[in-house]
Each structure stands twice: as C-alpha cells, then as structure tokens.
Amino acid sequence: MQIAVHDRGSGRMSTSEFRSFQARRPDHERWELVGGVPMMMTPPTIAHNQIASNLERLLNDALARHAPAWLAAQRPGLDLGADDFRPEPDVGVIDANYGAGQRFVDNAYLLAEIVSDTDEVIVPGTDRRWIEVKRELYRTHPHCQAVLVIAQHRMEVALDLKVEGMWTPPLLQGGATKLSLRDFGLTCRVADLYERTPVPRTQSA
User: Fold this and answer.
1) Residue 16 belongs to some domain of the structure
2) How far is CA 159 from the centre of its chain?
3) pLDDT value, residue 204
4) Is 28 contained in some domain?
5) How far apart are CA 205 and CA 203, in angstroms?
6) CB burial class (10 A; 0-12, 13-18, 19+) of residue 2?
7) DSSP E strand stretches across 31-176
8) Which residue has the higher pLDDT, 22 or 181?
9) What is the pLDDT of residues 62-111, one digit of tens each?
10) 73 found inside a domain
11) How many Cα neighbours within 13 Å face the side chain of 148?
12) Which of 189, 191, 188, 182 is nearest to 146 (CA)?
C-alpha cells in the first residue's frame, strides 16, 4: 500500500489551507485531510469503481421515481463541520439543483464508502482506522440519513440508517440479502452492488 503525504514541514494543515492546496492539484489526484495531514489516496481498483458505479446507477434509477429533487454522484465534495478532517465519499446523494462548475455541497443525504487499502490507515494521533473515523463523521452530518460502508472483496455492507433521530447499524452479509433504503426508493439485493465484479458468484447465494 502506498499513500502520498504532503510534506509541508512541521505543523498541521487547517481545513481552509487544505481546500486551497486541493484546488491547485490536478483533477485526477484524490486528496483527503486525515487528522490535519493531507494524504493522496491510491488510485482505486477497477472493482472499487464498478461497485461505486453500480450503487450510483441503482440510486439514480430509484431517485428518478421516488425523489427527483435528489441525485446520486460519485466523489461529491462535502465540507463537514469537523476540524482536521475532509473526507471525500465514494458516492453521495445530494440536491439535484447544482451550479455549473460547482465542486462542493453543504447537504448530503446518503454517503457511501467502498473500503480501500488507504481506508485502513491509522489516523494520526489516534488508534483508529480512517474508515472508522469517516463513518462517524458522516453520521454527524445533520442532513445525512444513511451511511453505507461496502466491502470490496466480499458481499458485505455495513448500513447505518437514521430512524427517528437514532442510528441503527445492521450488517448485511451475502448476496441474497435485501438492501432497503426506503427514503431513497431503493430496494435491491446486496449482490446487485457487485454486478460485473470479480467477487465470487458463490457469495450471491
């Protein structure tokens, strides 16, 4: 696993400094602020991208019927309230009304991560994995109603749903298990997220 860390000498980078730094980087680079340290994420695998594309497509098909004021997008820029952290979700449900050239949004209603090697890095100053911190950050976003953490090499989804202000965290295992996101109009099998990926077909039973 290779993770590029921006070397700026001693001290941490503020969120505003990070956004200014990020704006100067090429579009193909993907940076996240992890505990005040800018880190460039390794390029995702093809399977990672396919799972993200499957989820985006399933959500947009459902939202077109159920909630056309929302849309699903990959890698939406989201400014959370937490200092020292600027994650970039793999898929988010945002308002469909956005401006040309817009990069960042204030509101996201669903946030999803497909777990990569770089998500396993330990956040500086803690003993926690980056994916664990991101999951917690997403749950604190006031507009977020669902958080999905999707395994890349097996059919497994950790799903957090906000129900009457409380988070319920079911773990969905096996391809035949139903994924139901009522507020987004989506009901599908977990296996549908892994369509056209190398995940063994036997896991869909």
Assistant:
1) no
2) 12
3) 59
4) no
5) 5
6) exposed
7) 31-34, 37-40, 70-74, 77-78, 85-86, 91-95, 104-105, 110-114, 146-150, 156-163, 166-168, 171-173
8) 181
9) 999 999 999 999 999 888 767 788 889 999 999 999 999 888 899 999 99
10) yes
11) 27
12) 182
Q: Please report which helix (H) or strand (E) contains residue 114, including its range.
A: strand 110-114
Residues in the chain: 205
Q: How many domains, in total, are found in the chain? A: 1
- Rounded to whole angstroms, the Cα distance separating 155 from 164 reads 28
Cα 76 to Cα 72: distance, rounded to the nearest angstrom: 9
Q: Supply the CATH number for residue 170's domain.
A: 3.90.1570.10
Three-class SS state of 42: coil
Q: Is the pTM of this model over 0.70?
A: yes
Handedness of CA 59, 157, 79, 1 (dihedral sign): negative
Write the single-letter amino acid at 77.
G
Residues 121 and 133: beta-carbon distance below 8 Å: no
2-42, pLDDT tens digit by residue? 344 555 444 588 888 888 888 889 888 888 888 888 888 88
